[in-house]
Amino acid sequence: MVTYGYHLNLAPLYYGGLLSGFLLVVLSKRLSLGVVFHNVANTLLLLVVGLCALDAIHGLRTRSSRAAPSAQRAFSFEVARGDPQQFRNWWKDYVQEWNRLFQEITMPDPSGQLPFRFRPGSQVQFRESLFSINSYGLRDREFPFEKQGQYRIVALGESTTMGVTLQETDRPWSLALEERIRQSPDGPRPVQVINAGVSGYTLADGLNLLRETVLPLKPDLLISYFGYNGFDFLIGPTSILRETAPVRKSRPSPTLERFEYQWNLQRYRRRNFQPDPDPVMVARLTEGLLESHYAKLYADLIAVAQENDIPLVLASFNMAVDHGSAPEVIEFYRAVFPSVNFSILANQVHTRLIRSLAEQHEGVWFVDISDGLDGAHEHYIDLVHFTQSGRERLAQNLHTELQDLLKAEEQRHGLP
Fold first, then answer.
1. Considering Cα of 354, then 162, then 301, then 365, what sign does the dihedral take?
2. Spatial CB neighbours of 348, under 8 Å, sequence gap ≥ 6
3. Per-residue pLDDT, 231
4. What are the CA-CA distances from residue 245 to residues 6, 81, 93, 369 (Å)?
5. Residue 298 in contact with residue 203, Cβ under 8 Å?
6. CATH of region 86-242+272-413
7. Strand order across the beta sheet in which 312-315 lies
8. Which helix (H) or strand (E) holds 73?
9. Residues 162 and 129 sit within 8 Å (Cβ to Cβ)
10. How many CA atoms lie within 13 A of 39 on its CB side?
11. How many CB atoms are closer than 10 A to CB 236?
């Protein structure tokens, strides 16, 4: 009963089982079963009492922590005052809400090519932000199928492109980019930026979405902002993480929950994680980079763009920390992202990869949008997802880097 209640997170069953066991042990002490039995019984009683006491103390600390004025917004290093426990508390609630949201706006892919699709026409509230999926199955406004004279840009990517918005006025960076292009000093332009980012998608998934959903929309320009979800595609199983980091599951006993998570985390780190990659690891990640699975996926993306005569922009990926971040900031994010050091290295290698590919292919542009963004943790709600200030900064950097390309595209398409 105790085990069943623990694994299913049923507190009444779990603690009821502990109480029943406690009473049975107390009653059995009345029997003459020898010194050894009594010592074992006393030890079990102490363990049960100690465990319940630790759980009670944890409950008091958690309530105290969540009662703090900043606790509801403890998603950044500054707001959490550098306290990883506040970040863990926020992250736990955030993930539970995120899972609920995804159940409501996703569905199986009818073609079977993708792990899931957004459900067309669905809506759900996430914190103060409204997530709306249009009739094309994209997180965007409704828009006519025909371009009607507009220059159509499509943003491909992961959840960082889809937009993890929390506040009522938050918006994905695609909308912020569209607004900047339209309001540029050269005057209004008939430009539309479509958001084709999907949380949890890798570049492989993005390619399938591109072929099935995006190409029929006849885009004039593609912007790729992939990165984190494909870091394990860079080299191979001996160099890159091949298994998912353990998730902290809710248990009726917070003490045992913490012990179980730490145990799984240590096993995960021993198998996968080198906290401070040495020069040999850096060399292994860099050697054969253009033969990596990630490179092959990017080659497929480039081929699709060239076959359809669509210019392609490969944007550098950004995170809350980089190689120049303070150790205490990196440790703060390690509370939820145990492989943070490795991710920093993989991000550097990923930038080298897309820069090299852009140099080798005509019609492909690499844009570095890291200025004021990569390692600027004040623009993030976690390791990779932006606050609105981060999305606005990304749009600003993209707009700056794309101005020459957009002018050339205006001339090529005869736009005013």
1. negative
2. 322, 323
3. 87
4. 21, 25, 18, 28
5. yes
6. 3.40.50.1110
7. 191-197, 151-157, 221-225, 312-315, 364-367
8. none
9. no
10. 3
11. 14
What per-residue confidence (pLDDT) applies to 186?
Answer: 64
Three-class SS state of 114: coil
Q: Rounded to whole angstroms, how far apart are CA atoms 199 and 193? A: 18
Count other Cβ atoms within 10 Å, centred on residue 166. Answer: 17
Residue showing tokens 């606050």: 387
Residue 340: count of CB within 10 angstroms of its CB: 22
Q: Where are the domains of the chain?
A: 2-67, 86-242+272-413
What is the residue whose two structure tokens read 């006519």? 144
DSSP string, 302-313: HHHHHHTT--EE
Residue 239's pLDDT is 39
Collect the ranges in the chain with pLDDT lower than 70.
1-11, 13-14, 17-18, 21-22, 24-42, 44-46, 48, 51, 54-55, 58-73, 186-189, 235-249, 261, 265-286, 413-416
Structure tokens of 212? 């099935």
State the pLDDT at residue 350. Answer: 93
The region that residue 353 occupies, defined by phi over 0 for left and psi between -120 and 50 for alpha, beta otherwise, is alpha
For residues 406 and 399, give the distance between their C-alpha atoms in angstroms, rounded to a whole number. 9
> Which 8-state DSSP code applies to residue 210?
I
- 257 bridge partner residues: none
Give the separation between CA 272 and CA 94, rounded to whole angstroms: 26
- Three-state DSSP at 152 gives strand
Sign of dihedral through CA atoms 87, 93, 95, 98? negative
The letter for the amino acid at 208 is N
Chain centroid to Cα 355, Å, comes to 23
For the record, the structure tokens of 98 come out as 């995120």
Q: What are the b/e assignments for 189-227, b being 16+ CB within 10 Å?
A: bebbbbbbbbbebbbbbbbebbebbbbebebbbbbbbbb
